[in-house]
Amino acid sequence: MEDIILAPGRYKDLYKSVSLSEKIQGLHQMIQQDFPYIHRVAVALFDTKMNTLKTFVQSAKEDRPFQFYECLMENAPSLMEIKTRKTNRVVNDMAVFNNGTHEHTQKIAANGYQASYSAPLFDETTFIGMLFFNAYQKNVFKTLDLAKLDLYAQLINSLVVNKLQATQMLVGAFRSCLSLVSYKDPETGNHLERMARYTRLIARELAKQGHPGLTDETIEHLFMFAPLHDIGKIGIPDRILRKPGRLDEEEWQIMQTHSTKGREIIDTIAGYLGVATFDQLSLLRNISGSHHETIDGKGYPNQLKKAEIPIETQIVSVADIFDALTSHRSYKPAWSNEAAFKELMQLSGTKLNPDCVRVLIENSAAVKEIQNRFSDDLRDHGR
């Protein structure tokens, strides 16, 4: 009999450098070995500034009742109670919500789920979201099973926290660098907050309309990375970045290098942080490196055209330009939303992706809500 046995490890795939969605899908397969009745595992994140729950990752590939979706916490009183009490909840017969009027309740019922197990997710004492296990059968969550299921819930909690902490560390490092740019090239206080939310709004609406490559997880990272698009300006001399007048040809050529410098800075810092293989890092590289490309091929630095430009970059470009137009600057007043939308339409199809422009304009009420929540003191509020 051997004294030393090498065991493959049931959870070894969780250590691979893959997306959180892939890890949740793999973990779901393991969970089904113990609980074959669990047909869906899903995580929703909490946005503290908007007080909303937003879809993030889920294991189901076919039945996805919640995708590209968010709801106000006050519109989900049962989930609010779980958050407040910091306790898990079992519903063995979803019929108790048959008279519910909230959209999330109706979506679950419409998809045929009959039972659910919900757990709040925390990073130490900070509430970060919700975890859901859903089943198509009633009365499947037995008391004796809950202790083991709670261990899976804790494992998923750790995976989510690790993912968010890694992303926040990365974003924090880059935003620290970006703060140096703000000293050299000041912008209105909430510009980055607004353009990040315009980015998420555009991406979510495109995803709802079936645009390939946009998942909830990708959209969340796009939201976090969008404010870093101009990080390459760190490498631009102050005499150019802060020049009050028009740049001459030589200065303009130097200014255009900030896109390439941005990618170089990202790769350098990611290497120092040991996250060069971070699965969503390509999003950040694309946003920084090609946000000045235009679909007519006359942008910079590589004169990319149409589909050659990553969709995440095209989304960020529209969000950034819109907020720049509607923000007060020392050299111009804030434009009205109507005037900015008209300008975007002029650029649509030549410089900007027409679908990105269209969905932003179609969601003008959501745009106004973002502006009201993240307004600047110097902004023109007469929209």
UniProtKB/TrEMBL annotation:
MF term (GO), any: cyclic-guanylate-specific phosphodiesterase activity
InterPro entries according to UniProt: Cyclic_di-GMP/3'3'-cGAMP_PDE (IPR052020), GAF-like_dom_sf (IPR029016), HD/PDEase_dom (IPR003607), HD_GYP_dom (IPR037522)
Enzyme's top EC category: hydrolase
Domain called HD-GYP: residue spans: 166-376
Pfam family, one: HD_5
EC number(s) reported in the record: 3.1.4.52
SMART domains linked: HDc
PROSITE patterns tied to this protein: HD_GYP
Keyword vocabulary terms for this entry: Hydrolase
Domain of life: Bacteria
Name by which UniProt lists this protein: Cyclic di-GMP phosphodiesterase response regulator RpfG
Source organism: Desulfotignum phosphitoxidans DSM 13687
Primary gene name: rpfG2
